[in-house]
Write a structure and sequence with these properties.
It is a single chain. By secondary structure, the protein is mainly alpha-helical. The protein folds into two domains: about 1-75, no CATH class; about 80-235, no CATH class. The chain has 13 helices and no strands.
C-alpha cells in the first residue's frame, strides 16, 4: 500500500497526469455511451467531469496539478469548434437562401437564453458580477469568458455557467423536443446550437447530420452576435 501511495504521488506530479487521466476517463465513458445506445443521460462529457472531479477530491490532487497536463486537451477546444464548419460548408447554398431567417432566429434565441438567465438571477438577488457572468452562458466557454471579462463579470464563473448550460441542453434536448412535438432535425439542431453551444452541437452531430450542421450554424451566429451585442447592451443599460 505504501508503494502504491508513493507511485500515485509521483504520477500525479508529472505534467502528463492530467492528459492521461482525461483521455482514459473519456474513452471509457464514450464506450459505455455507445453500449447504452447513446442515451442522453449517459453523455460521456458529463460522466467524465463527474469521475475526474471525484477522483481529484478523493486523492487530494490540486486542480492546477491536474490542469498542467489537461491543458493540452483544452487547447484543442478551438479547432474542435472550427471543425463544426465542415457540415455547414456542405449546406452553404441552403444557408445563403435562409440567411436572414437564421440570423433573426439566432438573435431572438440568444436574447431569450441570456436575458432569461439574467432576469431570473436579478429576481433572486444575485450579485452584479454574477449577473454579468450569466449573460453569456449560452455561448461557447472561451468566448463566454472573454465577454464576461469585457463587461465586468468573472471569466471563470462564466465558463462554469457555459459548461453547465451545454450539459443541461445536451441531456434534456431529446426529451424537450419530444414533449413539444418538434420532429425537424434542422430545428432541433439549431435550437441546441443556440442554447447549448458546443456540447449541444456535438450531441446534435452524433444524432443526425442535418441537426449537426444547423447546430454549427447556430453556434457560429451566437458567437458573433453575442460578442458584438452583449458588451453594447451592458454599456447602454448596465
Amino acid at each position: 500500500m505504501s508503494d502504491f501511495v508513493q507511485l500515485w504521488v509521483y504520477l500525479s506530479a508529472t505534467p502528463l497526469f492530467g492528459l492521461t487521466a482525461t483521455l482514459v476517463t473519456y474513452v471509457v465513458a464514450s464506450a459505455l455511451y455507445d453500449r447504452l445506445g447513446r442515451a442522453p443521460w449517459a453523455n460521456p462529457v458529463l460522466w467524465s467531469v463527474l469521475c475526474l472531479g471525484a477522483g481529484l477530491v478523493a486523492t487530494g490532487t490540486p486542480y492546477p496539478t491536474y490542469f498542467a497536463g489537461a491543458q493540452f486537451v483544452h487547447v484543442l477546444l478551438g479547432p474542435a469548434v472550427v471543425a463544426l464548419a465542415w457540415p455547414l460548408w456542405q449546406r452553404r447554398a441552403e444557408v445563403r437562401r435562409r440567411g436572414l431567417a437564421l440570423t433573426l432566429a439566432a438573435l431572438l434565441g440568444g436574447l431569450a437564453a441570456g436575458g432569461s438567465a439574467v432576469a431570473i438571477g436579478w429576481g433572486l438577488g444575485l450579485p452584479d458580477e454574477v449577473l454579468r457572468s450569466l449573460a453569456s452562458k449560452s455561448v461557447t466557454a472561451p468566448v463566454a469568458m472573454g465577454i464576461a471579462q469585457r463587461i465586468g463579470g468573472v471569466p471563470a464563473l462564466a465558463a462554469v455557467f457555459a459548461v453547465l448550460t451545454g450539459l443541461v441542453g445536451a441531456l434534456s434536448g431529446k426529451y424537450l423536443f419530444k414533449l413539444l412535438g418538434i420532429g425537424s432535425w434542422a430545428v432541433r439542431g439549431f435550437a441546441l446550437g443556440t442554447t447549448a453551444h458546443g456540447l449541444g452541437a456535438a450531441r446534435a452531430l452524433q444524432v443526425d447530420a442535418d441537426a449537426g450542421a444547423y447546430a454549427g450554424i447556430a453556434l457560429g451566429l451566437q458567437v458573433l452576435l453575442a460578442s458584438l451585442l452583449i458588451p453594447l447592451l451592458f454599456r447602454w443599460f448596465g
